[in-house]
Amino acid sequence: MQKRIGACRAHTNIALIKYWGKRDQTLFLPTSSSLSLTLNAFYTDTRVQWLDNLSNDLFYLNGEKQSKEETNKISRFLDLFRDELGINGYAKVESYNHVPTAAGLASSASAFAALAGACRESLHLDWSNEKLSTFARRGSGSATRSVYGGFVEWNKGTSSVDSKAIAIDDANWDVGMVIIAINKAKKKVSSREGMQLTVATSPFYSQWVEQSEQDLIAIKEAIANQDIQRVGEIAETNAMRMHATTLAANPPFTYFEPETLQAIASVQALREKGFTAYYTIDAGPNVKVLCKASEMSQIKQHLSETFTNDQLITTTPGDALTRLDHWEYEDVTN
Questions:
Q1: What are the beta bridge partners of residue 13?
Q2: What NCBIfam families is this protein classified in (predicted)?
């Protein structure tokens, strides 16, 4: 098989119907399906070069050569392609993240989606985005959804083959989001640890999974009707139900901080003023506000009365995985 250079850009996403819990830790198969919005403001560019003179994989992040531990994570992902295609050889991987730490968004979503796309390009694979999403999933669950733009469903499937992303809607109908960055510090309970503890000990968990599947049906209907208010209502409720499962875990824990509650109150106040604004919160303290794109600047202005401008980031929906024909970054050495 001919090998060459391939590069791709992928945007990160925010789940509106949450992914919270795995039924298979190795294959990253979720307990329930989820739905997200891909975000234009945050992305990762990744280039993969298969080189004959390498004796191991190389990984550079933002121009800096990474440790053996971090490189091993990339090598395990590349192994998926090596094993699938029956090929040997090693690659130099260069990745540039444009996902601010303070945004409270998982850069792993865009990172592994971009890496999967760069592998497809470099190996001349005629794979659909749906198939590619099943590989991105093995790097990071949320990366499954970053293969597509707009509103995207991650169908939980029945196996590794059909647990994949599905494009739902391009979200090109006055959809926007304002990120309220509360705290960029490392979480006391990681997402992976939180998921496992919740699944194992929270008596609310099975009910949340059942309700989440109903929320997915409802939000897809609201998206089809381009009803941003209804989409926001469902997303907000789904997020709070997810966080309720953590409070019922043993031992109980929460990702909320005092400013998280302050942000929730600010969003509720925005609605009282007539704005279309609904919050969603992942496994962390940061708050994301789903709103009309046409109201984003006003919403940011109102929020700036409580939060600093550095804490507020606006974005519109992002595009699907994109091939990069021009690499804008300086080449790094072996």
A1: 38
A2: mevDPdecarb
Tokens for 175, please give them: 């959809």
Q: What is the mean pLDDT of each run of 10 residues along the chain (334 residues)?
A: 85 97 94 97 97 95 96 98 95 93 76 98 97 97 97 97 97 97 82 94 97 98 98 98 97 96 98 98 95 98 96 97 95 78
Beta bridge partners of 39: 317
Alpha-carbon span 30 to 19, nearest angstrom: 7
The domain in which residue 290 lies consists of 175-315
- What's the pLDDT score for residue 239? 98
307: CATH: 3.30.70.890
* Continuous segment of H or E residues that includes residue 291: strand 287-292
Structure tokens that stand for 177 in this block: 């989001």
Burial grade of 332 (CB within 10 A; 0-12, 13-18, 19 or more): middle
* pLDDT at residue number 107: 87
**How far is 276 from 36, CA to CA, in rounded Å?**
18
Do residues 153 and 271 both lie within one domain?
no
